[in-house]
Amino acid sequence: MTAQIISGTEMARTIRTALADEAAQLKADGVEPGLAVILVGDDPASHSYVKGKQKACAEVGIRSFLYTFPAAIDEETLLAKIRELNVDPAVHGILVQLPLPDHICEWSVIETIAPEKDVDGFHPINVGKMMIGQRAFLPCTPHGILVMVQSAGIDIAGKHVVVVGRSNIVGKPVGQLFLREHATVTYTHSKTPDLAAITRQADILIVAVGKARLIGPEHIKPGAVVIDVGVNRLENGKLCGDVDFDAVKEVAGYMTPVPGGVGPMTITMLLHNTIEAARQLAAK
Ligand code: GUN
Asked: Is 124 part of a structural domain of the chain?
């Protein structure tokens, strides 16, 4: 058996075409959706992610405003910028690229973003609403994964979803989103003994740890859906996921590639949230 590939690039293209129509309609109604992106320091990966987000905004008709700060910026200056953007009517979404330098408290930054402009879905208000099933901005990577699985026509209710990784950005919330869709969810992480014994029970396996090729064919139940969130740079400069793609595709039923899998869907959900924020703020 060779797994069917779930192309995030193709799904993202389709969804972004619809989002461009929505952005154009909002603009015709006098509201041009705007996203403010704050980038601190000079981490090359963060710069590259932010560039991708800005390019995607331009393609669907969202204005983006980039604010870059040196790594040595003090926390209060950063918080003051966020407070200014919170009341800027041209800005509907605010994104602070993570990680931040160690001397800045990530929680203070996230909690300063107005929840109605928190298009990352990281503010505790949005996290809490997501947990209890209220309307909220959903975090972009988990939401992108959910849409990919649903769009591939895979039933979720009653399935065993195993999540590898427990980050606040991906692991924890993705489990919650699949629980909302009536999956049975198991979380695993670096302290889980005999990881393979648990991942082999997964109908849907979601891997988000950032370790190149951690997951091999011995971790996979034949026919399983395997979602690879990892983006790791190898010594030869190539990107690879947390899953050993070539070996696992002989066992899995469905797989996402890296690159071209979850990444483009993450950005697409950011665009979706920004347009939704613009719509909601305009209706106030
Ligand atoms: N760093 C890695 N992923 C993300 C994300 O989804 N949002 C932000 N703001 N920073 C990140």
From this structure: no
* Residue 170 CA to ligand 1 centre (angstroms): 9
Nearest residue to 10 (alpha-carbon basis) of 202, 257, 246: 257
Same domain, 167 and 249: yes
How far apart CA 25 and CA 184 sit, in angstroms, is 40
Ligand 1 binding pocket (C-beta < 6 A) is: 95-98, 120, 140-141, 169
pLDDT per position as a tens digit, 178-199: 999 999 999 999 999 999 999 9
| Ligand 1 centroid – CA 35 distance (Å) | 14
Closest residue by Cα to atom 2, ligand 1, is: 98
pTM of the predicted protein model = 0.97
How many domains does the chain contain in total? 2
CB 197: neighbour CB atoms within 10 A?
11
pLDDT in tens, 198-253: 999 999 999 999 999 999 999 999 999 999 999 999 999 999 999 999 999 999 99
Strands (E), 128-219: 160-164, 184-188, 204-207
Do residues 145 and 225 share a domain?
yes
Residue to mutate (ligand 1; options 46, 51, 97; most atoms within 8 A of CB): 97
We report the CATH number of the domain holding residue 161 as 3.40.50.720
Claim to verify: residue 99 and residue 146 sit in the same structural domain:
no
Which residues constitute the domain of residue 198? 140-263
Please indicate, yes or no, if residue 184 is contained in any of the structural domains.
yes
At 108, the pLDDT band (50, 70, 90 cuts) reads very high
> Is-catalytic flag, 120?
yes
